[in-house]
Design a protein that fits this description.
about 450 residues; seven-stranded mixed β-sheet; four-stranded mixed β-sheet; 19 helices; 15 strands; about 45% helix; globular
């Protein structure tokens, strides 16, 4: 039997879970079901989504930074409707919309970045940037940072700084080495031999736990790369297009990279699109002339629908002054979270910039149970403290968040940049309620298990 679109709308939550478990990813289905995260969301608009039972949720996750304009923004939907009858995939011609998006991206990017390659995701943007660096320099070595996240395809994964995601796929692409994030001395030591093609870095580490480097780090990295003949690749996939209070986070220190990666919110929360943008000089060395212009290509990259979404997305972000709004709302949220930290020991740290904020939880349980289990309880909390708080926010307060992949005891707050103070207050009040009722990790565990169990038996 083949399902039709009309059939999909009628599926129950349990039917969806069964199909997903059987035909997609059984482990993920089990994990989300365990914490009651497998809700059937049926409508979305702005900062809100609704489940099949009619419950309304505030989305503070924002698809990991992909929803800067919110869910289903009207500007993007209108743009897509205008190009709906045009050829979407037609390689035997120059793409009008890719040309215009390339111009617009260069207009808002740091000065000097000009030539763009369009693809379908962030990890593809990173792959293209890495290939470009090797082709342009004729060098082999790539330096990235411990705790970084650049994607999960083989090249991007080789630059990603967590062994958990690398070991099952070893051996990875050769020539990749890591340095401590935020340490210029360690970076210089790697660059001294002048055999490095590029240093790839996030202005703020997202999956690493929303880690903000020391002031001057990015500017220092720019200087070192220029000094030792390496290209600087800045991964703005999560931080870009207004998220941190600037159009791009590297502008906080006035840095222009040689190559910059973007994705996520450039598609307006609707279309999958990524890109890397580089200087004319680097592009010419890597792909210049008819001989090399097709060295790196993508069937779906630069398609009409995705590029139309990108054009509309950039314009909406600029016209609505969303970087400035992110700075204002982010400061308000950070101040509120820091006030909670002062009152509740369970919060270990609060950090971030703009509307890219991480809350790190204390994971050390000093009680008898941890001692008699040989530290197993603490190890459990190091992996699941963030998930438990996220579960309480979702199931008890209808607020969507998630933990960061490389540091799972940190939950991220990356709401749409159109979030209001009222929405932020609702999130802060929810956290206060959770910490007031659960003064300790063990109590939080029992509360999470009870909520999840109640949900399972009520389905």
């Amino acid at each position: 039997m083949l399902y039709q679109i009309d059939d999909v709308e009628k599926l129950s939550r349990s039917e969806i879970r069964k199909l997903y478990s059987e035909y997609v990813n059984p482990g993920l289905a089990s994990m989300l079901s365990l914490l009651n995260f497998d809700k059937n969301f049926v409508r979305a608009e702005g900062c809100f989504v609704w489940d099949s039972d009619g419950n309304k949720y505030i989305d503070f996750l924002g698809a990991y930074g992909a929803l800067n304009l919110g869910h289903n923004p009207p500007e993007i939907r209108e743009a897509l409707s205008k190009v709906s009858s045009r050829p979407n995939l037609l390689q035997a011609s120059l793409s009008t919309y890719a040309a215009v998006l390339g111009h617009n991206l260069s207009e808002v990017a740091p000065s000097g970045l000009k030539n763009s390659f369009f693809c379908n995701s962030g990890t593809e943007a990173v792959e293209g940037a890495l290939k470009t660096a090797r082709a342009a320099t004729g060098k082999f070595k790539i330096i990235s940072c411990e705790g970084s996240f650049h994607g999960k395809t083989m090249g991007a994964l080789s630059a990603t700084g967590r062994k958990k995601y690398q070991i099952p796929f070893s051996p990875l692409v050769p020539g990749f080495e890591t340095v401590e994030y935020g340490c210029l001395d360690a970076l210089e030591e790697k660059l001294k031999a002048k055999d490095v093609a590029a240093f790839i870095v996030e202005p703020i580490q997202g999956e690493g736990g929303i880690i903000v480097p020391p002031e001057g780090y990015l500017k220092g990295a720019r200087k070192l790369c220029s000094q030792y003949g390496a290209l600087l690749i800045v991964d703005e996939i999560q931080t870009g297009l207004g998220r941190t209070g600037r159009m791009f986070a590297c502008e906080e220190e006035g840095v222009t990279p040689d190559i910059m990666c973007v994705a996520k919110s450039i598609g307006g929360g609707i279309m999958p699109i990524g890109a890397f943008i580089t200087t004319s000089e680097v592009w010419e060395k890597a792909f210049g002339g008819m001989e090399k212009c097709l060295l790196h290509t993508s069937t779906f990259g630069g398609n009409t629908m995705a590029c139309a979404a990108g054009i509309a997305s950039i314009n909406a972000i600029v016209e609505n002054k969303l970087p400035e709004r992110a700075r204002e709302m982010g400061e308000y949220m950070l101040n509120g979270l820091k006030a909670l930290k002062d009152r509740y020991n369970m919060i270990k740290d609060v950090r971030g910039r703009g509307l890219m904020v991480g809350i790190e939880f204390e994971t050390e349980e000093r009680g008898l149970l941890n001692r008699i289990t040989g530290g197993a309880v603490n190890k459990f909390y190091q992996e699941f403290a963030g998930a438990m708080v996220a579960g309480e926010l979702l199931n008890g307060h209808r607020i969507i968040t998630a933990y960061t992949l490389n540091n799972p005891n940190v939950i991220r707050m990356e709401p749409p940049l159109i979030i209001t103070k009222q929405d932020i207050d609702q999130m802060l009040n929810a956290l206060e309620d959770i910490f007031t009722k659960n003064r300790g990790l063990l109590k939080l565990t029992f509360s999470t298990v009870k909520t999840a169990a109640g949900s399972l038996f009520s389905r």
